[in-house]
Hints:
The chain is an alpha/beta fold. The chain has seven helices and eight strands; from the N terminus they run ββαβαβααβαββαβα.
Amino acid sequence: MPYFQTRHQPDVDLIVPFDDEVLVDMVDEPGWSPLLPLYSAVASRVASSPRPLVMCGDCTVALGVVAGLQRTGLDPAIVWFDAHGDVQTMETTTSGFLGGMPLRLLVGYRPELAASALGLRPVAEDRVVLVDARDLDPPEALFLAGSPMRRVSVPELTPQVLPDGPLYVHLDLDIVDPTELPAVRYPAPGGPSLAAVMDAARMLFRTGRVVGVCVACTWSPGTVLSDQVKNLVESALSSWESS
């Protein structure tokens, strides 16, 4: 999924080799509507894959991934790794950045923006685990303070805090401390190590309940990642694919 929202990024490094590339014609305009052809294509590909692993350039693609999983009859809970909350709204955002909203849309905010067109059903907030989210805007902090979403650090992510049922794992790699991944678009100091994040992902894969994974490679095109970074991520993902 070589896109940053509507912008095609053919040279973005998506870390691991892929079998299928989703490409669609989109108009580079603001708002959610121009993105719907991409999310619809993603949902279709995910629904036809027995174990979908999606690599993408931003977190909004998660709407298509979860819609695709739901089309197969699954009702996945969400484990969302991110340095940010991604629970802004169109009414509270000061920047208008859509990448700050996908988790809020997944739990039912304003379905007319994207969910209705995708057939995406809202995920109950108490079936979401938000991992890290150390960089929150004030409206996000206010929302999360009153939400039943579980919010944990990477070390606190254990099998005991997971919701029941199948799991969708969303991994925005900007969760990693920017000293290890300095080229992310929106760095947030003070994050966990890449090794710690990958160990947490392996723990999830060992549950046998992970039904889909999306890795958001949220860095600028042209970024050259080290072999150490690629090997750590690829090794963790391989442990899921072989489980």
